[in-house]
Design brief:
kinase, NDK-like_dom, binds adenosine-5'-diphosphate, nucleotide-binding, alpha+beta, single chain, about 170 residues, 4 strands, signal
Length: about 170
C-alpha cells in the first residue's frame, strides 16, 4: 500500500524517487540476449547491492524504440540503431538504489566499448559501438521517462529487501 502510494506520488513529483528509492532503466540489448549475457548482467547489478523492481523479456516495437531514442533521431546511425534494437528480444529491467543512475552508467562503461575500462560490462563483453550489449539511463530525468515508456505501473514490484541493513547504514 505504501509502495503504491509512493509510485503514484513519484509519478507526480519527480523528487520522490531519490535516495535509496532512486530508479534506473537498464536493458540487455538483442546481442546481449543472443550471446547469453542476461544472467551475467543481472548478476552484476544484484551483487552490487541494487534491488530489482521490474524485469521482462520483450520484442520491442519500432514505435517504442523510436520514442526511446528520440533524442538521437538526427544521428546518422539512428535507423541502424532502431534496426539493431528490433532485431531480437531485449530484457528490460528497473533497478533501485542509492545513486543507481550514476553507478549503473559506471558499471556499463562508455558508449564505445573501446573507451570502456576492463571491469565494466562493455569493457568486458563487447568490441563494437553498434553491438554494445546493454543500455542504461543517462540521467534521473531520462530514467523516469524510460521507465514510464517501457513499464506499466503494475509491472513494477515494491518488496522488502532483507539484506537492506547490510547494504545501507
Ligand atoms: P549510450 O547508450 O551510452 O547512452 P548514446 O545514447 O549516445 O549512448 O547512443 C545510444 C546507442 O546508439 C549506443 O548505445 C549505441 O548502441 C548506438 N551508437 C552510439 N553511437 C554510435 C555510432 N557512432 N555508431 C553506431 N551506433 C552508435
Amino acid at each position: 500500500m505504501i509502495c503504491l502510494f509512493m509510485t503514484i506520488f513519484a509519478n507526480i513529483f519527480q523528487t520522490a524517487w531519490t535516495g535509496v528509492n532512486e530508479r534506473t532503466f537498464v536493458a540487455v540489448k538483442p546481442d546481449g540476449v543472443q550471446r547469453r549475457l542476461v544472467g551475467l548482467i543481472l548478476n552484476r547489478f544484484e551483487q552490487k547491492g541494487f534491488k530489482l523492481v521490474g524485469l521482462k523479456l520483450m520484442q520491442a516495437s519500432e514505435g517504442l524504440l523510436k520514442d526511446h531514442y528520440i533524442e538521437l533521431r538526427e544521428k546518422p546511425f539512428y535507423e541502424h540503431l532502431i534496426r539493431y534494437m528490433s532485431s531480437g528480444p531485449v530484457v528490460a529491467m528497473v533497478w533501485q538504489g542509492f545513486n543507481v543512475v550514476k553507478m549503473a552508467r559506471k558499471m556499463l562503461g562508455e558508449t564505445n566499448p573501446a573507451d570502456s575500462l576492463p571491469g565494466t560490462i562493455r569493457g568486458d563483453f563487447c568490441v563494437d559501438v553498434s553491438r554494445n550489449v546493454v543500455h542504461g539511463s543517462d540521467s534521473i530525468q531520462s530514467a523516469r521517462r524510460e521507465i514510464l515508456l517501457w513499464f506499466r505501473q503494475d509491472e513494477l514490484i515494491c518488496w522488502d529487501e532483507s539484506a537492506e541493513p547490510w547494504i545501507y547504514e
